[in-house]
């Protein structure tokens, strides 16, 4: 018995989205094809991988167990094909990423990319978006991934993200109180958005803690220094509380992007960006210990 890699790809697409229509769109096939692939896989393995109802799809215990095994098998196949293809991409990608992305499954997606393209090396620099953009302009990076305002146009949008205020547990900010900000240094997107949002609402604020390290900012919030503006996906970070709706003014959304030195990504950089776009549904884990 041999497992069809296309059946495994269809299963993983459903496992990542828990939605047959979205899985079909991501794979470029019909919904009925995805359903047939999954059914055939279940027949071959002799077990239910997905529990389906008219309203929802969820993974069974065997389905959850198959996810890692299926990814390993597909990565091995990609590695073999890449290794012996004469036109396999080679070289080094100098990648810059913001620290918040390292608290998602971004590193796992990079692992998937590296396994599929073993002759490509990736060196990584972690920093603030503004710093990474400068390094790209100076020719010291090939790609950087991070945050931009929705009004900006540089780079290729990966997804749109809500912003949240994170504060010490049970924090309260009366209207007459100056808001203690815990932020990145001047020039960061989140700092500018937070200050602009507070200024528009007429709320007083002051800088209580500044650091270029996201880990330091979150530690300062837990220690009671103040409130920090960060992406909504950090809501799953352990022991980090976000403010209740209405406690502070709502911030505008941001966009996470991949930016290259060229107007249109080329070569290995284009391969990397396509991989990131393909795996966007995998980015956010359910729980983030920190």
Short description:
By secondary structure, this protein is of the alpha/beta class. It has helices at 5-17, 20-27, 31-45, 61-84, 106-116, 129-137, 189-201, 214-222, 267-278; strands at residues 50-52, 57-59, 91-97, 120-126, 143-149, 156-161, 163-167, 179-183, 205-210, 228-231, 241-242, 254-260.
Description:
- The chain is α/β, with parallel strands linked by helices and 290 residues long.
- The chain has 3 domains: 5-84, Orthogonal Bundle (Arc Repressor Mutant, subunit A), CATH 1.10.10; 91-147 and 256-282, D-Maltodextrin-Binding Protein, domain 2 (3-Layer(aba) Sandwich), CATH 3.40.190; 163-252, D-Maltodextrin-Binding Protein, domain 2.
- It contains 9 helices and 12 strands.
- The chain has a 5-stranded mixed β-sheet. Strands 10-7-11 form a 3-stranded antiparallel β-sheet, sandwiched between helices.
- A hairpin with a 4-residue loop joins strand 1 and strand 2.
- The longest helix is centred in the N-terminal third of the chain and has 24 residues, at 61-84.
- The model is unreliable at 285-290 (pLDDT under 50).
- InterPro entries: LTTR (IPR050176), LysR_HTH_N (IPR000847), LysR_subst-bd (IPR005119), WH-like_DNA-bd_sf (IPR036388), WH_DNA-bd_sf (IPR036390).
- Residues 1-60 form the HTH lysR-type domain.
- Keywords: DNA-binding, Transcription, Transcription regulation.
- Pfam families: HTH_1, LysR_substrate.
- GO terms for molecular function: DNA binding; DNA-binding transcription factor activity.
């Amino acid at each position: 018995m041999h497992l069809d890699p296309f059946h495994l790809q269809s299963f993983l697409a459903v496992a990542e989205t828990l939605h047959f229509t979205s899985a079909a769109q991501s794979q470029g096939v019909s919904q009925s094809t995805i359903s047939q692939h999954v059914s055939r896989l279940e027949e071959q393995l002799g077990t239910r991988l997905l529990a389906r109802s008219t309203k929802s799809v969820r993974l069974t215990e065997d389905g959850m167990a198959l996810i890692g095994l299926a990814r390993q098998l597909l990565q091995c196949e990609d590695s073999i094909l890449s290794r012996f293809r004469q036109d396999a991409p080679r070289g080094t990608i100098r990648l810059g990423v913001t620290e918040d992305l390292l608290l998602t499954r971004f590193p796992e997606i990079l692992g998937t990319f590296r396994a599929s393209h073993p002759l490509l090396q990736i060196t990584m620099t972690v920093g603030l978006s503004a710093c990474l953009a400068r390094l790209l302009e100076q020719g010291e990076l090939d790609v950087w991934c991070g945050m931009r305002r929705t009004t900006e146009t540089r780079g290729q949008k990966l997804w749109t993200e809500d912003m949240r205020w994170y504060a010490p547990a049970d924090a309260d900010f009366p209207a007459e109180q100056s808001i203690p900000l815990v932020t990145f240094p001047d020039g960061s997107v989140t700092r500018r958005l937070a200050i602009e949002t507070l200024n528009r609402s007429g709320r007083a604020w002051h800088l209580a803690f500044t650091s270029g390290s996201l880990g330091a900012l979150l530690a300062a919030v837990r220690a009671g220094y103040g409130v920090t503006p960060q992406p909504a996906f950090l809501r799953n970070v352990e022991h980090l509380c976000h403010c209740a709706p209405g406690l502070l003014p709502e911030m505008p959304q941001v966009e996470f992007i991949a930016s290259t030195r060229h107007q249109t990504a080329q070569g290995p950089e284009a391969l990397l960006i396509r991989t990131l776009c393909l795996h966007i549904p995998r980015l956010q884990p359910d729980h983030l210990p920190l």
